[in-house]
Amino acid sequence: xxxxxxxxxxxxxxxxxxxxxxxxxxxxxxxxxxxxxxxxxxxxxxxxxxxxxxxxxxxxxxxxxxxxxxxxxxxxxxxxxxxxxxxxxxxxxxxxxxxxxxxxxxxxxxxxxxxxxxxxxxxxxxxxxxxxxxxxxxxxxxxxxxxxxxxxxxxxxxxxxxxxxxxxxxxxxxxxxxxxxxxxxxxxxxxxxxxxxxxxxxxxxxxxxxxxxxxxxxxxxxxxxxxxxxxxxxxxxxxxxxxxxxxxxxxxxxxxxxxxxxxxxxxxxxxxxxxxxxxxxxxxxxxxxxxxxxxxxxxxxxxxxxxxxxxxxxxxxxxxxxxxxxxxxxxxxxxxxxxxxxxxxxxxxxxxxxxxxxxxxxxxxxxxxxxxxxxxxxxxxxxxxxxxxxxxxxxxxxxxxxxxxxxxxxxxxxx
Length: 415
Prior knowledge:
Elements: E1 3-9, H1 15-20, H2 23-30, E2 32-38, H3 40-43, H4 46-51, E3 61-62, H5 66-76, E4 81-85, H6 92-104, E5 108-111, H7 124-134, H8 138-154, E6 162-166, E7 185-189, H9 193-204, E8 213-217, H10 228-231, H11 240-258, E9 261-265, E10 289-290, H12 296-300, E11 307-309, H13 316-320, E12 325-329, H14 337-348, E13 354-355, H15 361-366, H16 372-383, H17 388-391, H18 395-408
Parallel strand pairs: 1-2, 1-4, 2-3, 4-5, 5-6, 6-7, 8-9, 8-11, 9-10, 11-12, 12-13
Helix pairs in contact: 2-18, 6-8
């Protein structure tokens, strides 16, 4: 009998997600069937869903209401299936989904990736800084209050069996979503998906390319509003035209300094599937090289000169290939949360971000040095485990081997 995985996803499930989660490889090499439920219309709001530009994956079941999903799940739970749950209890609908999963007594896996930045201490300074940032924006406070409330409620009910796929290697680790470690809680050493995607291509890599390009990791903003609609953040006021004019002038200087082209890698939400019709969803990049391929970073990172970013977790590829990274900002973003993210990521790699309006070749060259100890720390705290049975193995193999092991030993009692 074919082994089934039911993957529950709270956001738009795109073709990029299908690539990122290595679903094709998992199905083909392990004789698995992955059933994907796109629950974006059930657990998230219309404004957030409208942000996605990347083409939606066809091989998914898309639900328009909670009732329709409950009806389908009631039939599915009778099959021999393991749930891979990405839906966290943040509102009423997502709470009900998690409640039904727990009551079903089906085995559950979830991915608990370590965030690529130090966790903020929840002290008085933290709360005051957040009040200063959000001011009287009640939508943000309401979002977090609901989130904490529903997470507290769902943690009162225990899973029958749960497997945490995590790249978090801290000794005092416990799941941030599912409470303390218990007998029914099993941690499986895992990689971040960026690391795993890079690993998959690296293993198959044969051809080398000339290092005549620089990668810019676009985070979507300020042209796109991104995740602001998720928690109700007020969208920062930018002079968008000036922002991108300044950014393109910076790219022109960089290309001249190094006699190399800047390649724009769009954020995963904003990738064009028809580049003949739409080269870039951001019109300010239409005169530049834009690579929309889902595996662009996995294939291009090893042979680029260096990376440029404005708060992107995709700097994982730079760490994987030990490439220099330059964090940049503009004077406009100094007083926004984006600058805090850029600063934090730069510090993680032992750097200071650069102001694009005060750039010169000397400053750039100074920032192209690599702090090997910082890179090593980043790799083994946010990307993978210092264990050859994990750090050399792509995620689809870890999941596939786990599935084979669990089904072979008949550990699960399916109803």
